[in-house]
Design a protein that fits this description.
Radius of gyration: 23 Å
Oligomer: single chain
CATH superfamily: Alkaline Phosphatase, subunit A
Keywords: Signal
Number of strands: 19
Pfam families: DUF1501
CATH architecture: 3-Layer(aba) Sandwich
Organism: Maioricimonas rarisocia
CATH topology: Alkaline Phosphatase, subunit A
Largest sheet: 9 strands, mixed
Strand content: 15-25%
Number of domains: 1
CATH class: Alpha Beta
Protein name: Sulfatase
InterPro entries: Alkaline_phosphatase_core_sf, DUF1501, TAT_signal
């Protein structure tokens, strides 16, 4: 895939100066038309996919810390029978599932009462119970989940999607990360690495800041009119362009140029997208939004994600913390489900009612799963498990009411329908119209891709 060059932007900047040296009024009328051309032809403009896509956009519901499959979407009755028996390792005992399970929907998919709102959408869920990854520590596992590599700095999946497909709205960021974590890789989880900087994600807030307080800084300028801001930006961009000509290999300069232009355009649209007051009270309540509600923060994230993809953002990630219950499993998982389950159910309902679920890929999961045993004497905890865990997908061309793969009868490791993260990434790209073997970027003398030299499209889950 060829990379859009910044030549058009540089020519446009030169033409701005010519226009401004002519008559001011007519110059800016002409400039308005040029700005529209830039929006259509810039590096974030929509690009042709490799093949007809099943999904146009994606929302990733990141459950940081690793939710337990045997408490959510993979029924393990054998654990209930054998609780207290010796586990695989010394001094470890098997732990039963702590919630009731039922078959849900017409498909009869097993889902626990812990996630009862998601259970209502069982017929839309494609449950991947044969997931496995390479490492069971949070930071490297999160980096591998987001970038395909735990050892090296690589572009995030969202950056690859934006690089490959562009964005459908030139007045908004094409890739947004809402409430991203400050640790476990931090900005690398939504960064562009060696891809041109324009493809990195735009963060809204962070995991420690309630999303209702999160803002994108300096989105409004109370001192200057739009025309005066444009003139000021033209001067700054002329300096940036001069620097870019001195060092054409430095994509960061081009990224700055494009980000300034995007920031200028965002002023007209982003505040309205982030303003939830336009939503009805019943919609806010359906997402669990309200003062004092445990679901208020994540509900706002999910509703913002829907509003953003509806406005043309290509990829949105929302993040919850923290499913890492080595102890206090019941209390901890109950708290995380109370915070996220209703908003996720509402998001799926909302997308479906708006006719958007069929071409929106929704992905749920953490960086790994949890063990079926514990060293705790109170049997109220589970530890990290990278060998077998569960994620789910919905919409966007996947089979609904379908469970693919399984771990062994106790949940230690994936034994059927094994899906590595490289396979998941290849499948996500495929659903969005991209061939993971062709979506490449040449850097340091070799071609890189999200899946490196691995990955297969999991065709068994395609609708």
């Amino acid at each position: 895939m060829t990379i859009p060059t910044p030549d058009f932007n540089r020519q446009l900047c030169n033409r701005r100066q010519m226009l401004k040296s002519a008559t001011c009024g007519l110059g800016y009328l002409a400039f308005a038309g040029l700005a529209q051309q830039q929006a259509q032809a810039g590096p974030l403009a929509p690009k042709m996919p490799h093949h007809p896509p099943r999904a146009r956009r994606m929302i990733f519901l990141h459950m940081r810390g690793g939710p337990s499959a045997m408490e959510t979407f993979e029924y393990k009755p054998e654990l209930n029978v054998r609780e207290g028996e010796a586990g695989k390792a010394k001094n470890r005992k098997l732990v039963s599932s702590k919630w009731d399970w039922k078959r849900r929907g017409e498909s009869g998919l097993w889902v626990s009462d812990l996630v009862k709102h998601q259970a209502e959408h069982a017929d839309d869920l494609c449950v991947l119970s044969g997931m496995h990854t390479d490492i069971a520590n949070h930071t490297p596992a999160m980096l591998q989940l987001h970038t395909g590599s735990f050892a090296f700095t690589r572009p995030s999946m969202g950056a690859w999607l934006l690089y490959g497909l562009g964005s459908e709205n030139q007045n908004l960021p094409g890739f947004v990360s809402i409430s991203p974590p400050l640790i476990n890789g931090g900005t690398k989880n939504y960064g562009a690495a060696f891809l041109p900087a324009v493809y990195q994600g735009t963060a809204i807030g962070d995991i420690k800041t309630p999303v209702r307080q999160a803002k994108i800084g300096n989105i409004n300028n109370p001192q200057y009119t739009s025309t005066l801001q444009r003139e000021q930006l033209d001067v700054i961009q002329s300096l940036n362009e001069r620097m870019a000509r001195r060092d054409p290999a430095d994509s960061q300069i081009d990224g700055v140029i494009e980000s300034y232009e995007l920031a200028f355009r965002m002023q007209s649209e982003l505040p309205a997208v982030m303003d939830l007051s336009a939503e009805t009270q019943s919609t806010l309540e359906s997402y669990g939004i309200g003062d004092g509600k445990p679901s208020d923060n994540f509900g706002r994230q999910c509703l913002l994600a829907r509003r953003m993809i509806e406005a043309g953002v290509r990829h949105v990630e929302v993040c919850d913390e923290f499913w890492d219950q080595h102890g206090g499993l019941v209390k901890g998982h109950n708290a995380r489900a109370a915070a996220t389950d209703q908003p996720i159910g509402a998001l799926l309902t909302d997308l479906k009612q708006r006719g958007m679920l069929e071409d929106t890929l929704v992905v749920w999961g953490g960086e790994f799963g949890r063990t079926p045993d514990t060293a705790r004497k109170d049997f109220d905890g589970r530890d990290h498990n990278a060998n077998g865990y569960t994620m789910w997908m919905a919409g966007g061309g996947v089979k609904g009411g379908f469970q693919y793969g399984a771990t062994d009868e106790l949940g230690y490791e994936a034994v059927e329908g094994r899906v590595h993260l490289h396979d998941l990434h290849a499948t996500i790209l495929h659903l969005l119209g991209l061939d993971h073997t062709q979506l490449t970027y040449r850097y340091a003398g070799r071609d890189f891709r999200l899946t490196d030299v691995h990955g297969r499209v999991v065709s068994e889950i395609l609708a």
